[in-house]
Amino acid sequence: MTEASLPNRDRGVIHNSTDGTRTTTGTTPEDLETVTIPAGALGPTGAIKITGVFKASGTNAAKSAYIDVRDDGGGSAQQLHTVNWGAADEDSVEIEIVFSNEGSETSQHADGRVITDLAVAAKSTPPSLTRDTTAPIEIVFVGDVTSGSDTMTLELSRIEYLGEAPS
Fold this sequence. Notes:
The chain is an all-beta fold. It has strands at residues 2-3, 12-17, 22-24, 30-37, 46-57, 63-71, 77-85, 92-104, 107-115, 120-123, 137-145, 151-164. It has a single domain, classed as Jelly Rolls (Sandwich). It is built from no helices and 12 strands. The chain has a 6-stranded mixed β-sheet, with no helix packed on it.
């Protein structure tokens, strides 16, 4: 687990990992990386952009990639975005999400998009969330394959602090 830092609440990248070693052959969703956003870091109108690049290898089964948010230390996760793609496809999928507080540290909105050349069935981002960001929250990058002979790798995870909306 990594803790992001927001020194002076300056805009910019607060987490960036490109080591490509976070891999699973798991047939149930597996956390590939967890990044903790410190308590109160977003303020009432702050926003972060979350990016995950997932690469699948193997052509035996369907693959899935997720980005979730959950309370620090576990608890129930809420999927911000999910992408599923077919067994024959070996390629990268990029998920990008803007997660923002909407005037309150307990009311959020998330907008997501998927960047890929694959034909995917993407789950819509939930229109509203109710995480308490006065406490730490975790951004979780998750992957799975339906055949243990295929592999899912998190090639890049990045979180960028976008600042607070003007008042």
